[in-house]
Design a protein that fits this description.
339 residues; alpha/beta; Nucleotidyltransferase, domain 5; 2 domains; five-stranded mixed β-sheet; 11 helices; binds 5'-O-[(R)-(carboxyoxy)(hydroxy)phosphoryl]adenosine; binds zinc ion
Length: 339
């Protein structure tokens, strides 16, 4: 089975071809064009610029993905695209491209929820049966879910304010570390002392599995305000303190969710992490400790498959398609679409 997947919901234009071969041979092509440079000047993603940029590149990217995979449109079993959640202009570009290909070549169209793409990525790269506990941490989302099957998600908790990636991005802005924020904070934190400046650990120790990050970001702002002149070392120390606080919060919440998952399913795990923030090495190390302390392991997709890409959409499309899911060409774009 061969599926083309298209992703255009934020600032990455992506196209990929995946198959249902054995792990290791599934990724036939995975091309990502990042619009970073087009948005850098504005310090964040500008929706109109993103949509136009997707439109300019998507056709060539799809053609290149097919070439790299060594296949034709005729060889494909279905065409999958992100139909939400995300920036509506960008979602429309990828979705309409996929629908047009499906219509012209007489192929099934499969609509994919971007979050489901992240949620199932670990099954593309690992022999991973259901169920598993998923920590989904991206720019727009922060959730803990029991993944019981394709389309079967039970939410244990989520953020009551900012998403964790958003907190990284806003903190990077406060610290003037550049854009995009997550990787910038991680880089600068390497030369920082996480213990010099104390930051809060919102929600740690509380019952339930919810998160809160806005207070942490505010605490960074206050800490900055107390410094007389902000040196590069101050920025590094604050970046390290922020990253350590986030890791503590995510570890505490994940440990709780894992205990609940173990009690409910009678299975030890595994703990799976996905989404752009899962590219953070400090975080991965902490989550790995959490999993081990509770008798299981952490499964994390490779970095390049944590941030937005086409392979995750192609794979989620494949998982849905092989269960019989096909969507109509009238399927709507959904800027908001919870899992
Ligand atoms: O999943 P993703 O690529 O897009 C969304 O669906 O949101 O996630 C992007 C988010 C951004 O907030 C970015 O700052 C964050 O993931 N991110 C990181 C790292 N790499 C990307 N956060 C922390 N550490 C990183 N290394
Ligand atoms: Zn994403």
């Amino acid at each position: 089975m061969l599926i083309l997947g298209i992703e255009t919901s934020c600032d990455e234009t992506a196209a990929a071809v995946v198959s249902d071969a054995d792990v290791g041979a599934r990724l036939r092509a995975n091309l990502v064009f990042t619009q970073l440079e087009e948005h850098r000047l504005y310090g964040g993603v500008v929706p109109e610029i993103a949509a136009r940029s997707h439109l300019e590149r998507i056709d060539a990217l799809v053609a290149e993905a097919l070439r790299e995979a060594g296949v034709d449109f005729a060889d494909l079993d279905a065409i999958a695209a992100t139909t939400g959640p995300g920036l509506i202009g960008g979602v429309m570009v990828g979705m309409m491209t996929a629908k047009a290909i499906a219509a012209v070549h007489g192929k099934p169209f499969v609509a994919v929820n971007h979050l489901e793409g992240h949620a199932l990525t670990a099954r593309l790269t690992h022999d991973l049966p259901f169920p598993y506990l998923l920590l989904l941490v991206s720019g727009g989302h922060c959730q803990l879910l029991a993944v019981e099957g394709v389309g079967r998600y039970r939410r244990y908790g989520g953020t009551i304010d900012d998403a964790v990636g958003e907190a990284f991005d806003k903190t990077a802005k406060l610290l003037e570390l550049g854009y995009p924020g997550g990787p910038a904070v991680e880089r600068r934190a390497r030369s920082g002392d996480p213990r010099r400046i104390a930051l809060p650990r919102p929600m740690v120790g509380r019952p339930g599995c919810d998160f809160s990050f806005s207070g942490l970001k505010t605490a960074v702002r206050h800490a900055l305000g107390k410094l007389e002149s902000v040196t590069p070392q101050d920025r590094a120390d604050l970046a390290a303190a922020f990253q350590a606080a986030v890791a503590d919060v995510l570890a505490d919440r994940s440990a709780r969710a894992l205990a609940r998952f173990q009690a409910e399913t009678g299975q030890s795990g595994p703990l799976v992490v996905a989404g752009g923030v899962a590219a953070n090495a400090t975080l991965r190390a902490r989550l790995s400790d959490v999993a081990q302390a509770q008798g299981t392991e952490l499964i994390a997709p490779p970095m390049a498959l944590c941030t937005d890409n086409g392979a995750m959409i192609a794979w989620a499309g494949l998982e849905r398609f092989r269960l019989g899911a096909v969507d109509g060409l009238d399927f709507p774009a959904r800027p908001r679409w919870p899992l």
